[in-house]
Every structure is written in structure tokens, then in C-alpha cells.
Amino acid sequence: SLYVLSMTVAGAWFFARDWSRQEKQLRALRQSQTDTELQLLKLQMNPHFLFNTLNNLFSVAQKNKDDETAGGIAKLAGLLRYPLHESQKALIPLEHELDYLRSYIELARMRCLPEELELDFRVRGETQNRYVPPMLLLPFVENAFKHGVRAGHVSHIALSLEITDNRLIFSGSNPDHAAANRNDTRHAGIGLENVRRRIALLYPETGELTYQSENGIFQFNLILPL
User: Within 10 A of 174 (CB to CB), how many other CB atoms are there?
Assistant: First the structure.
């Protein structure tokens, strides 16, 4: 009948319209994915170019027998390589993270006069076969050097990592020159706020992070389950 024919034609039209809309959405999604992949490729090319440049500089420093510069360049290349390869993983060996922290500290110390920095980094407990989220400890060390070191002043930085009862306890203290300059004892870096959010997502019930700046000294304490 005419009614059935009309309903069939209308149904076919609605089906074709929905199919066309879905096809457009699918093409847009594919294009978006392609654009994202291209951007990622561009981002991957830049670090590789940087690594090659650092390797060339390393060779020049070695040729000139400048061991200090060569060592600094080698550590910098390692620092850049680490987040590129490790940051995509959910968990990495704690030993890798500690090696990264030590390299960062050695590199950061190069910009300080020996008499202006007193640093104590202690590790206690069994660190083998332990795993942590990548780049979770670094912001505390970055913060210590960024806000705790000031030209013309003697800076004391203390860092401690302890493994006990299947827990990781990372704590430390450093001068807080940024807070002193702004007369703001509530200072906390953006990096540490990011760490707090990561811990809330990764360990909503078992992770703990506290930090404060008081009397010009910044202190933090991080507890993670292992």
C-alpha cells in the first residue's frame, strides 16, 4: 500500500541520514587520529635531533679533553632519554628512578659553587625488585634545587628514601627562598600539586603526601605502598 511504501521510504531516508552522519564522524575521528600521530612523530623527531646534537657535543668535549663538560653532556642526554622511554609505563623499577634522581642531582650541582651547597641524599632498605610510577619522585628534587639554592648563600638540602614494611617513605627539607622573597609561607610548586593529584588517582586510600614551608624551610613527606 501507499502507507507501507511511504514508511519504507521514510525509514530508508532516516537510515541513510544516520549512516551518513556516522560516516562523517568516523572520517573526522580518523583524521583526528592521523593529526595526533603526526604531532607525536614530530615530537619524537625533536628529542632524537637533540640526542644527536648532544652526542656531537660530547665528542667535541672529549676531543678537547674537557672531561667535566663531557660528563655533564652525557648526564643531560640520559635525563632527556629517561622520560621519553619510561614515562609511558605504569610502573618502573625503583632502581631506575633512583639512578635518574642521582644523575639529576649531579647535573644540578654543576651550577652551584661547592661551598654554597651541602646536600645529603640517603637511601635505606631493600630497593631491588621494587616498582614505582615513573617521574613521581623527581618534582621534589627539582623543587629543592629551584627554590632551595641561592647564589651567595649556603644551602642545605636533605633527602631521604627508606623502604620499610612494603612502604616507600621519601622525605626531605631545603631552604625555601621563593617563599621568603614573597613573604608567603604557604608556597608550593605546581609540580608538587601535580604529584598530589597523581597520588590521589593512583593511591586514593594508601598514598600520603604532606608538605609545608615554615620559617624559610620547606619540608615534605611522601608515603607510597609497594
Answer: 25
